[in-house]
């Protein structure tokens, strides 16, 4: 009998002992180990006949003592290992503790009772649905740990931190605690083609609405997104998404800033990058040539909305007469934020007849902007205002047939078309000392945008 045949008989004898052990310990893991060892035996048996006859090979006796752990001991240790599961489930508006745990594959009445009774644990089911709940349970379905992440509770930490709720089993009891941790930024790439509207294209590419609004701001000095958008226009962008413990977050502050973009409108391509001055700390969008995209006045007092009435003659919906409309009306739901289009000082904040709740801001150079029909006012008379700062919210106060913002621009005592003023206003220049750092930033985003251009209709993270 050859050495190989002796070893094969020895291995078969061990397998018989393993099978007997598996019969006494019918655990899923034990059966898996037995199956793996059985496959090894079959493989060894199948390969052996392919080898040349052992009698034809030179023979040499080698004696070696190998200390191998007992298979029975290894199987005992493996059988003692507790198999568990870890699963993430998003909360639903109709969820109860029992339905949530059942959907996660955990069957634990004690855990469900704790989720109903504990004030911290009940936060899982309060507020908006869609919270991501991570449940860890053992093989019997007994909950070991539940982790949920929320927006930070302190206003100064919102957008930069998150709150982690941890529920852990401690013997027969459960404990719940919360802690605050910083969000981490992750770079994402996306691109799309305009077929009907900007937001339809960004939705098709799974790009968040907040990033679409920032893109409209980035190129507002180059493109009138209300009137100049064309079917077939293309865009590519680089932006930030925020994660909590490495997991994408689902609440509103889950999107960071737009870092760079290229937009081809009617055959002409515009490029821009987000750049922060390391000396002053101020940030803005700049073209790749170093020319600032930020002008003294924004093109719109709202991030993105629908113009319902432009700066032109119109039929007045209340007075039922044709008259000059000396402003721009933006249709938007009640409560939509309204922002100042430029730096200035609040000249008026209150009620004014047909304007309802109105804010008037005085800017340099004898220029004044008016924001009317507001549902609420967020500023006071005499307050200094910066460009982009919220001044109120869309409403339908005064002479209004529905929720919208009436916006006016006065220059030298005359009413002007706000969009024409924004385009003609002076731009903010890049300081000379920042050009070297700026060029490095541009070189970095050029590569990312080149990759994004190949991903029409999709997004990817780095």
UniProtKB/TrEMBL annotation:
It comes from the Bacteria. The keyword Hydrolase applies. Coiled coil: none annotated. The keyword Hydrolase applies. Keywords: Hydrolase, Metal-binding, Metalloprotease, Protease, Zinc. Its cofactor is Zn(2+). This is Peptidoglycan DD-metalloendopeptidase family protein. It comes from Pelomonas baiyunensis.
């Amino acid at each position: 009998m050859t050495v190989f045949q002796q070893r094969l008989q020895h291995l078969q004898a061990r397998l018989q002992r393993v099978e007997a052990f598996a019969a006494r310990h019918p655990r899923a893991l034990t059966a898996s180990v037995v199956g793996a060892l059985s496959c090894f035996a079959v493989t060894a048996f199948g390969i052996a006949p392919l080898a040349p006859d052992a009698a034809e090979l030179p023979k040499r006796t080698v004696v070696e003592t190998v200390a191998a752990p007992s298979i029975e001991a290894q199987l005992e240790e493996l059988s003692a290992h507790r198999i568990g599961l870890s699963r993430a489930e998003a909360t639903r508006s109709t969820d109860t503790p029992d339905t949530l745990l059942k959907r996660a594959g955990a069957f634990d009445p004690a855990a469900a009772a704790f989720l109903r009774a504990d004030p911290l644990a009940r936060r899982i089911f309060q507020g908006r649905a869609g919270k991501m709940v991570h449940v860890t349970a053992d093989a019997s379905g007994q909950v070991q740990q539940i982790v949920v992440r929320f927006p930070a509770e302190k206003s100064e930490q919102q957008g930069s931190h998150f709150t982690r709720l941890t529920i852990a089993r401690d013997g027969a009891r459960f404990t719940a605690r919360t802690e605050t941790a910083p969000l981490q930024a992750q770079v994402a790439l996306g691109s799309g083609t305009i077929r009907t509207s900007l937001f339809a294209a960004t939705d098709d590419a799974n790009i968040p609405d907040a990033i679409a609004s920032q893109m409209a701001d980035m190129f507002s000095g180059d493109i009138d997104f209300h009137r100049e958008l064309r079917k077939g226009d293309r865009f590519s962008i680089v932006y930030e998404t925020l994660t909590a413990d490495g997991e994408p977050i689902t609440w509103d502050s889950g999107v960071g800033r737009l870092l760079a973009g290229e937009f081809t409108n009617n055959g002409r391509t515009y490029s821009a990058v987000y750049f922060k001055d390391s000396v002053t700390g101020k940030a803005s969008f700049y073209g790749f040539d170093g020319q600032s995209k930020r002008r003294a006045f924004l093109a719109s007092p709202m991030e993105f909305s629908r113009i319902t009435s432009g700066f032109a003659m119109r039929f007045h919906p209340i007075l039922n007469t044709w008259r000059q409309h000396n402003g721009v009306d933006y249709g938007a739901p009640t409560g939509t934020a309204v922002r100042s289009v430029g730096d200035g000082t609040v000249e008026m904040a209150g009620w004014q007849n047909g304007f309802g709740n109105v804010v008037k801001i005085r800017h340099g150079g004898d220029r004044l902007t008016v924001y009317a029909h507001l549902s609420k006012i967020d500023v006071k008379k005499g307050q200094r205002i910066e460009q982009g700062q919220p001044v109120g919210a869309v409403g339908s106060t005064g002479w209004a047939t529905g929720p919208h913002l009436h916006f006016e621009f006065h220059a030298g005592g005359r009413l002007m078309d706000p969009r024409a003023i924004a385009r003609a206003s002076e731009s903010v220049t890049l300081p000379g000392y920042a050009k070297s750092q700026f060029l490095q930033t541009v070189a970095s985003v050029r590569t990312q945008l080149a990759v994004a251009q190949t991903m029409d209709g999709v997004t990817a993270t780095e």
